[in-house]
Each structure stands twice: as structure tokens, then as C-alpha cells.
Amino acid sequence: MALTNNRLLQTKLALIITSLSISSLAQTDVEELVVTATRTNRTISSIPNTVKLIDRDAIEQQLAVSSSLLDSLSFSVPSLTPSRQKMTTTGVTLRGRTPLYMVDSIPQSTPLRNGERSGFTIDSEFVERVEVLYGANAIQGVGATGGVINYVTISAPRNGNLLQRVGVELESDNFESDGLHYRTTGLLGKKSGAADVVIGATFDAQDLYYDGYGNPVGADTTQGDTMDSKTKNVFGKFGYDFSDERRLEVTGNYFKLAGDGDYVGIAGNIENGIPATSTEGTPPAEPTYNEASNIAVTFTEKNLYGGNLNTQAFYYDFYALYGAGIFAALQDAAIAPIGTLVEQSALDSEKFGAKLTYSKEDSLWSGLQLVAGLDYLQDKTLQELAQTGRVWVPEMIYRGWAGLLQLEQSLVNDKLRISAGARSEHVELDVPDFTTIASAKSTFVSGGTPSFEKTLGNFGLVYDLSEQVTLFSSYTQGFTMPDAGLILRAVNTPNQTVDSLVDLQPVVADNIETGVNYKIAGFALDASYFWSDSDLGSRIQVVNGAGQIRREKTEIEGWEITTSYQFSSGLKIGTAYSNLDGRYDSDADGRVDKDLDGRNIAANRWNSFVEGSLTQQFDARLQYSKLLDRDFDGGLPQHNFEGYDLVDLIMIYDTLSAGKLTLGIQNVFAEEYITYFSQSYPATTDDNYVSGRGRVITLGWKMDL
Questions:
Q1: Predicted local distance difference test score (pLDDT) of residue 651
Q2: Which of 213, 262, 321, 410 is a good FRET partner for 28, with 20 to 30 A between their CA atoms?
Q3: What is the pTM of this model?
Q4: How far is 619 from 612, CA to CA, in rounded Å?
Q5: Residues of 22-38 as b/e, b for ≥16 C-beta within 10 angstroms?
Q6: Taking a C-beta distance cutoff of 8 angstroms, is the pair 212, 686 a contact?
């Protein structure tokens, strides 16, 4: 639906701040939990930001039906686009914009050349909880136009108990011999005196997936696939408490998800609604893989001039190899006859940075919290062609530093919290002289150092109308770089300079939100409305098989509602609904006039569940997800979305002495459906027109020794 001027005016008159909207799938003592993605460790009740916490119990609940961490978020966060069940995150958006993926607040995203692999850099076994900050924000810097998804890693028990945890899983697609998958995990942790340590390792092997028709799912040998793959992850964390107020922590994580290369895809037929499938075969050249390493050193001082100091230095190394083929965009007659050159690309990104945050309660007068910070980030990214050694995207070095200041004042006996803040970004992008590849006419481009300075603000309030009702409203800004590598590699006009490419200007998103939280007895309701605008957006369009950037005005609006009720018997029911609409300016007249497609906007979605204890040791959960039909104006009819319904069943049995047994059934009724992305993205071809997984049965065992 179009966004009318009246609606925009009404929305922009809404009160503004960083809002609070909490919903946890498990009933824990949420008041004691803290959120780290907001730069300061604050209890949930005091955070003036839109946040959803998914604790370990809720994570394991969803992992019982899907071993993929990203897939497991789909039910918990309905405004997150359904995962494609592939190695890629192409088309996965949060509230219609790109989220910033983080591990312990270390950015995993690669905005300079978005390879769409940032959601696969750590195994779920090492994630204690997931923090989701909705909407554009600049809390963590570049990349969060849709929000932040922060994976907080596990720590050793603080009570000195020994952590010894092992687990195994066996998963089956359609009871086929080549549809069996297995997984093993192990964790060891201990706090002794002032020191604590936790180490762990996981191994996951996935074979062929089957759809609801009983046919193999089409293999994506270009972008990468989670089926026909093996994943290895090694994790470690060491901490030392110099005193009750001073702590040093070092964290390291190595992750590799690699395709086996045992299957090749067979094209489907979009016009006739026939999905792609797979058969045994060997893809050309090397199979796809993701490799990521994180190292972080964090020092905290809890009583520095009456406030808390947190400093973090980090290093992140990421390499993604994409599938090989005879791609028109990668042909070069000087190397091989046109139409014969087998080539594959690889994304190489390395970043290091530092964050300093100081916070103080009652800083100048009673009730005033002050937060000040200073960040530095250097991101070096390039894209190469692995078979011939050519450089497709030149080495780009992003250097940025930012200062931030946030104030929050409590009034009216702490019922009213008013906050305001700003982050001042100073960014420079250093690109050398380079020559594009043959398909872009081997064009020479003069290097340069485009830069920008931008101050991003936020302001708003949270008001506790009563013990049961909280009202909120917010205004926040976030920014990201457009896919600079995608822009630069496509330059085919002579006499261009990097400095003259105005498309390198940042994408700044304004986000306005207002809503209500209501909780009484066993009933909880969270509802919010948001509107997001970017005057210079970044919409990706595929032309002749190559991605191009369209810098257009975009507007996205939506509303979300989550309700749950827990009966005195312990039985709990709940439902969540997410509604999104997105438009862009297709004719550069300053007004949005066409729908964003399925790569940029999620389906409207309805999730419901019922869960409870059948006996003292036996818990069960039944969940239902409905993705609603969506028509896109300006597109071809075959790319309108026909919705589908999925039902999952989760059962957990606690043996008390021999660990927990889990049985998860994904897609209980073997629904036959084409994935949302395959249906709704105009650039979908017969090769990647794929079905979703059919019925999947997972048996798991986990025990603390």
C-alpha cells in the first residue's frame, strides 16, 4: 500500500526515543538480564531502546527443529525475513533493511562489499543469548539500518561449578539414506579463584535436503548451501578478575562452513511452477565455503570516578569463496575463448577496531545518566577471482572514528525517562587506482579518498503509565555504506574517479517508532508502529546477471504485535504478527511510487504457539507460522508471493540423571512450498527457483556431566 502524505505527517508528529519492547520466549527473571549491544550493561527495565532478548532456553527450543542459528531466529523475530535455508543471507532483512550481525559486539557484516554471508560466523552452541535491537540505530556504528543482531557468547559458570557439556544430534530429511545429518558438540568451563576459562568445539555434517514433494532441494552451488556441507567451530574465552570491580576478558572463535561439492543443481521452471532439484555430481573448481576468525580483548572497570568504563579491542578476519561457473560477467577473451572460462569469486575482509564506553549514574544531578564513547574501525575489503588471480573489486580501506554522547533523565519518581544522544561519524574510504575486468570494458578508474562527516541523533521517552502499562515513542538514525564494491567493479565509462562517484555517499535511515507494553498476571502484550525513511537508499538490482546499485528514496512502514498468556497450570499460548510495506522512488521525482521487491521487504507473517509440561519431566511445544500472500506492483505476476503455512513440533524429555532428550519435527505436515525469496525476487532464475525443506525429524541428546 502507498504511504500517504497524511500518514507521514501523523507519523512524524509522533513522540520520539529509543523504545523498549521486550518479549522472551522463556519465562525467566528478565529484570536481572542485561543487554550488551546497547554499549552499557543495563537491566532490561531501564533500557530506552527497542530490544528483544532470546535466551538460551528459547534458542535451544528452536534449534530442536533447525540446527541453523539464523533459521532458528525466524520464528522468534517475525519481522526478520525467512531464511533461504542456504549459506547466503541475500534477501534477509530486519524491518525491511539490513541488520548488523555481531558476535560479542564485534561487527561481522561486510558493508563495503556485501557478500551476504555475515549470518554464518559462529556455531549456535557457543551463543548464550541473542540480542535484537530493532530499527535503524548508530549505537554500534556502520551497518545497522535495520537493527542489530548480537550473538552473546557463553561464559564459564561464575559460581565455580564445572561446566562439562556434550551433545549429539541426528537429523533426517524424508527418511532418505542421503538425507541424514549429524552433529556433535562439547563444552568445558571452570572458574577457579580469579581466573575462569571456557573452551568448546563443534562438528556438523549436512547431506541432502528434501522438500515436501519428496524431491531433493535444488543445490545453490554459486552463492553456497548449508546442505551438503561440513561445519567446524572452535571457541575459547579466558577471564581474569583483578578485583570485584576490574576484569580482563579474551575471546577467540574460529568458524568454517564448507561445501562438500557432492551435488549439482538441476534447473526448475518458474513459468510452470516446477522447482529446481539436485543430483549427484561435482561442481566445477572448488566448493563454496565461509571462514571467519574473531579475537576480542575486553577490559572493564566498574568504579572509575564513580562510573563504569568498558574498553574493547577486536580483530576479525573473514573469507568467503563463491561457486564456480561460466559466468558472462567474468569472461575474458585474453584468457580463454568467451563462453569457456570457468571462474569463481572470493571475498576477503579484514577489520580491527576499538571501542571505549564510559557511563555514570547521577552524573551531574540526581536521575541523570551519562554515557560517552569513542570508537575506531578499519575495514579492508577486496574481491578477487580465485581461478585466474584477477582483482574484481580493488582493495578498499574504510577508516572511521566516532564520538558518542547519550543522556537519560529519570523524572516523576522514575516513571518518565527522557533520553537524547548523538553520534558523530568521521569516515574516509581509501581506494587505489584500478582497472575493471574485461566485462566492464577494462576501464581505468583513478583512485581517491572520498570522505564524509555525519552526526546521527536520537531522542525520545518511555513513560510507565502504571505498573502494567508502559508507553514509548522514539526517533533514531542509523547509517551504512552502499555496496561500494558492487559500484566500483561495474564502472565501464572512461575518465571516472572514485571521488566523483557520488553513489559512495552513505545510506542514512531515519526511524520513528511508537508503541505500548502491557503486562498483568500471566498476560503480556507488546505493540508498536514504525516508519523508516532514507532519502538516498541503496536498492540492489540485477542487470544481465550482475548486481547494480540504485540510489533511490525509500520508505518502509509497519506494525508488530506480540501477545502471550500463561495459565496457572503452566500452559502458555502466544501469537505474534508483523506487517511491513516498503516503497521506493523509481522515477527520481522525489516521491515513492513502487513496491520494494522480495529481496528488500519481508512477507507479512503470523506466528502462534502453545507450550507446556505434560509431566514433571516432559515438555512440549507446538508452533504455527503463516506467511501471507503479497502482490508487488510494477513486477511480473509470477513474482507475486503465494503464502504458505508451516507447523513445527518440539518435545523435550529430562531424564534427570542422563541428560535431556529432544525430538523436533520441522514442517510436520510436509507442506509443499517455494521459498519466499524464490517466489518474490524478480531476478530469480530457473536455477535458484527452489522449494523449502519438507518434513525434518531431529533427535538430540545433551548432558551436563
A1: 97
A2: 410
A3: 0.91
A4: 6
A5: bbbbbeeeeeebebbbb
A6: no
